[in-house]
Design a protein that fits this description.
The complex is a heterodimer of chains A (about 260) and B (about 400). With about 260 residues, chain A is of the alpha/beta class. Chain A has a single domain (about 5-260), classed as TIM Barrel (Alpha-Beta Barrel), CATH 3.20.20.70. Helices cover about 50% and strands about 15% of the residues of chain A. In chain A, strands 5-4-3-2-1-9-8-7-6 form a 9-stranded parallel sheet. The radius of gyration of chain A is 17 Å and the shape is globular. By secondary structure, chain B is of the alpha/beta class. Helix content of chain B is about 45%, strand content about 20%. In chain B, strands 3-4-14-9-10-13 form a 6-stranded mixed sheet, with helices on both faces. In chain B, helix 5 (about 115-130) links the parallel strand 5 and strand 6. In chain B, helix 2 crosses helix 4 (about 90-105). The chains are: A alpha/beta (about 260), B alpha/beta (about 400). The complex binds pyridoxal-5'-phosphate. Pyridoxal-5'-phosphate binds near residues 193 and 351 of chain B.
């Protein structure tokens, strides 16, 4: 089992829920991204999702769109993101998931990507616009490299499709907690409870819920239903707010501590 | 020649369904509903009836005699899609998709638009079938295609301005997709070209294929034979595929797609994704895209808002890769000149998009024999472009 599976295993023993944290690589700069990830890990984040910025992020709301633009302006590329992972891995054993749209990976070369990502110490890969129907062209390589290919389940996913996605899930099942793009609406607890219940009946793979979770209270509520919660836009907004300030790391650390406390 | 696409929407290595999971169930439902409609004779009857009684089909295949004489080569015919209700070929597709939306019980429709022609055609069918309609349009396009913005509003549609990126067609499509992700349970997305995730490229091509079928029949009646060359402009590629589809197995008919070279291929300010792009994935399909070495999409540019897109429909990528069609480029200046030429010498003001096809025909006709025949797909009329033409003078 890899770092992701181990982490969920350990948390289960401690009766804690995982805090999965998304940030956009290269926002505001590559150097700060590394420091930010180490700060997140220190403050209690259990898994980090490093977003590869893309020019046309159609699954993202305004906050992550703006972060992607800032990161691209700062010259961030997928090769650069892989370098960031290498540097983080020298100092931390936090599980790392690369979160991307498919085109940057396709341009990099699917096989080379899988090998390089594994080699620098990434643990999982999540591609928002690569549904199971199109996934094999990447997954043959990421499976071979030993990266967890993380599958998404949406509120609109049902029936046989849900069964098939869950069956082939690795690492954890990512349940999208709103019918919408990132950071735009508040999750509705009842729907989430129902959907996560369905997933649980189909698999023992851990389930993390994310999209639209914006504070510790929501995280706590959803944490009672899932094995983990994912936060993204809240943190990215905070990074934007403090990116010119000495208080950046402190603000990020406080935010993570508060949310993690709700998951213990 | 293989039948494309395959069951999963692949045209060779292109096409497919690279969509967010939230949209996948809706795309599968749509595919199923469309499959059923294709076998349903009452759907076909409705579609044909609206095409003829409402949109005004068949459009004429007009022999441009003066133009032919002046250029001194091949005979030039214009397939007059500009004569359709709303002024372009876009209505062929929006009628089909709106009928499908009605069949699926959807009362809300959304669309992206560049030139505004697809927006107008969508607003029109929404009014016709009593549907709520939102059109996403880049701010730059709202500026340069103002007459169409007014038309959409008059028809009762809401026009949502999009500011991101270059505020043109690609950005409008991004925003329409985002909105669809949040509204997918009750909203039908009427994509305006042969792009997007499967089944859109297939469905839009089929709804547009009436253009080529009519042309073939009209040509048989008027000339008693097949044409030698078909020329059409390529944005996402729907008017071109609509024209080409019926001729795809007639290997003696050359298919020529015209991409916009904007300020010139050497300037990088163009939107010739087949001529200058690389394979990649955007907006739900794999195709040729203008992009940098790291897979970031590059800004496209053309004077014609409807061509100003950094990708192209996957079936065109397939035709280019297999050599069935050839793809050439025409600059802003050449298109503007053709726009003026057709207006003054045939009394037909073409859309700036269509003017790219006219310009290409003007290049090749003089080099062809007098008994050869070119058909230009005149995809739309140019009233919307008055402002842009004035600015370019
Ligand atoms: C008149 C006209 N022709 C052509 C196009 C380009 O689209 P397509 O390549 O799908 O035909 C447009 C798009 O707006 C248009 O308005």
């Amino acid at each position: 089992m890899g770092r992701i599976g181990n982490k969920f295993g350990k948390l289960r023993v401690k009766k804690e829920k995982a805090l999965v944290v998304y940030l956009t690589a290269g926002d505001p700069s590559p150097a700060l991204t590394i420091e930010l990830i180490l700060t997140l890990a220190e403050a209690g984040a259990d898994i980090v999702e490093i977003g590869v910025p893309f020019s046309d992020p159609t699954a993202d709301g305004p906050v992550i769109q703006a972060a992607s633009q800032r990161a691209l302006k700062a010259g961030t590329t997928l090769s650069g993101v892989i370098e960031m992972v290498r540097k983080v891995r020298r100092e931390s054993q936090i599980p790392i998931v690369l979160f991307s749209y498919f085109n940057p990976i396709f341009a990099y070369g699917v096989k080379r990507f899988a090998e390089d990502a594994k080699q620098v110490g990434a643990d999982g890969i999540l591609v928002v616009d690569l549904p199971p129907e199109e996934a094999p062209e990447l997954r043959v390589h990421t499976d071979a490299a030993g990266l967890d290919f993380i599958s998404l389940v949406a509120p609109t996913t049902g029936g046989r499709r849900l069964r098939e996605i869950v069956k082939s899930a690795a690492g954890f099942v990512y349940y999208i907690s709103i019918t919408g793009v990132t950071g735009t609406a508040a999750p509705e607890i009842e729907n989430i409870a129902g959907d996560i219940g369905k997933i649980r009946r189909l698999t023992k793979t851990p389930v993390a819920a994310g999209f639209g979770i914006s504070d510790a209270a929501q995280a706590g509520q959803i944490g009672r239903l899932a094995d983990g919660v994912v936060i993204g836009s809240v943190l990215v907004r905070l990074i934007d707010e403090y990116r010119h300030s000495d208080g950046l790391m402190r603000a990020v650390s406080d935010c993570i501590r508060e949310i993690k406390a709700a998951l213990r | 020649m293989k039948t494309v696409p395959d069951k999963r929407g692949h045209f060779g290595v292109f096409g497919g369904r690279y969509a967010a999971e939230t949209l996948m169930p809706a795309l599968l439902d749509l595919e199923q509903a469309y499959g059923k409609a294709q076998k349903d004779s009452s759907f076909k009857k409705d579609f044909d009836l609206y095409q003829s009684r409402y949109a005004g089909r068949p459009t004429s295949l007009y022999f441009a005699e003066r133009m032919t004489r002046q250029l001194g080569g091949a005979k030039i015919y214009l397939k007059r899609e500009d004569l359709n209700h709303t002024g372009s070929h876009k209505i062929n597709n929006t009628l089909g998709q709106a009928l499908l939306a009605r069949k699926m019980g959807k009362k809300k429709v959304i669309a992206e638009t560049g030139a505004g022609q697809h927006g107008v055609a969508t607003a029109t069918v929404a009014a016709l079938f009593g549907m709520e309609c939102k059109i996403f349009m880049g701010e730059e396009d709202i500026r340069r295609q103002a007459p169409n913005v007014f038309r959409m509003k008059i028809l009762g549609a809401e026009v949502v301005p999009v500011q991101s990126g270059t505020a043109t067609l690609k950005d409008a499509m991004n925003e329409a997709m985002r909105y669809w992700v949040s509204s997918v349970r009750d909203t039908f997305y009427i994509i305006g070209t042969t792009a997007g995730p499967h089944p859109y490229p297939l469905m839009v091509r089929n709804f547009q294929s009436v253009i080529g079928r009519e042309t073939k029949r009209q040509m048989a009646r008027q000339e008693g034979r097949l044409p030698d060359v078909l020329v059409a402009c390529v944005g996402g590629g729907s008017n071109a595929l609509g024209m080409f589809h019926a001729f795809r197995r007639d290997m003696g008919v050359a298919l020529v797609g015209v991409e916009a070279a904007g300020r010139g291929m050497h300037t990088g300010q163009h939107c010739a994704s087949i001529n200058a792009g690389k394979a990649g994935v955007l907006h739900g399909n794999k195709t040729y895209l203008l992009q940098d070495a790291h897979g970031q999409i590059r800004d496209a540019y053309s004077i014609a808002a409807g061509l100003d897109y950094p990708g192209v429909g996957p079936e065109h990528a397939y035709f280019a890769a297999t050599g069935r069609a050839s793809y050439v480029t025409v600059t802003d200046d050449e298109a503007v000149e053709a726009f003026g030429y057709l207006s003054r010498h045939e009394g037909i003001i073409p859309a700036l998009e269509s003017a790219h096809a006219v310009a290409q025909a003007m290049k090749i006709a003089p080099k062809m024999k007098k008994d050869q025949i070119i058909v230009i797909c005149l995809s739309g009329r140019g009233d919307k472009d008055a402002q842009t033409i004035i600015e370019s003078m």
